Amino acid sequence: xxxxxxxGISYFLTxxxxxxxxxxxxxxxxxxYRGIMKTxxxxxxxxxxxIRNVLYRFANRMPIDLSALIAFFLLELxxxxxxxxxxxxx
Length: 90
Description:
Distance between the termini: 11 Å
Oligomer: single chain
Number of helices: 3
Number of strands: 0
Shape: flat
Helix content: over 70%
Order of helices and strands: HHH
């Protein structure tokens, strides 16, 4: 039972990572007003917006948006933390 909950959380984080990856790759080739980009943006923007706000405060003149890279790192960190909590309470 407990393993299933933690595995579900892990699957959810993996899906979010894939959505973020699809958003990043498609943003190179498709304009943001296309249907698929609007849909992906609804899922990904709530994750990227706080990271962009923090980056803008500290490095507002950066020519590259690194928010997706930081989001990938944070999602990986959260995924590992979830499994560490599972092994700790098991």
